[in-house]
Amino acid sequence: MKIIISIVALALPVMAESLRSANVTAAINEVQVYTGSSQARSAAVGETLTIPSSLQTGRKSRAELTFSDKTLTRLGQNSVFSFREGGRNVELKQGSVLLQVPKNAGGATIRTATVNASITGTTVMFEYSPGSWIKLITLEGTQKLTIIGSNQTKDLPAGKMIIMHPNAKVIPDPVDVDVRKLVATSPLAGKGIFTPLPPYAIALIDQTIKGQTEAKHKGDLIPTDHVITGPGHRTTRSTTFVPRTDQ
Questions:
Q1: Nearest to 235 by CA among 188, 183, 190, 178
Q2: What pTM does this model have?
């Protein structure tokens, strides 16, 4: 299975012109670049890709793109993505992605065939297995999940996760996920493969962790033995919490 990332040229407003290119800031194992109709070549860390361009990585391979506004996109193995508007809109056809959008960057949307996730100044993780499941996790900030073609929407604040079937007609209520354990074990969050996330993102994620820690001490969140693992090498491994129900 390979990762394919396409950066597609669109008619963009002037304010978004700077997002028409991205630097390759990580290329792990088999990562190839396609530019227009040219033959594939190996990606080079530090090179600048302009639209239209594609990245392709193989099994146990990952890549990272950093756009001029500091929007960070990390791509897991065994995934298929297409990028439009310089990375603002991401079509996730299969696999996993971590997207970190700075507060002033204008937001982004992760799209699949059946749902959209809109984020603004947020760090999120998204997994999609066609015909099986969708998993969204908000590390900091808030994202909104929408079922395409319906009025079904749900906000997903920091520390929350939604797992659902891709063809579900109703969005389930979010559950609490152990962000401390998730960040400590996730390659996309920086565990052993990528460098740590930007300091401002880490500070905001630390606020999420602090809030969960305080809630545990108060007894408002109770750790469970339920471990959620992602595809491949524990892409989004974490445990869940059970909120106290006697309130």
A1: 188
A2: 0.82
DSSP string, the chain: --EEEEEE-----GGGGGGGEEEEEEEESSEEEEETTSPPEE--TT-EEESSEEEEE-TT-EEEEEETT--EEEE-SS-EEEEEGGGTEEEEEEEEEEEE--TTS--EEEE-SSEEEEESS-EEEEEEETTTEEEEEEEESEEEEEETTSS-EEEEETTEEEEE-TT-SSPPPPEEB-HHHHHHH-TTTTSSSSPPPPHHHHHHHHHHHHHHHHHHHHTSEEEEEEEE--HHHHTT-EEEEEE----
CA distance 159 to 10: 34
Collect the ranges in the chain with pLDDT lower than 70: 1-19, 36-37, 83-87, 225-247
The CATH number of the structural domain formed by 3-175 is 2.60.120.1440
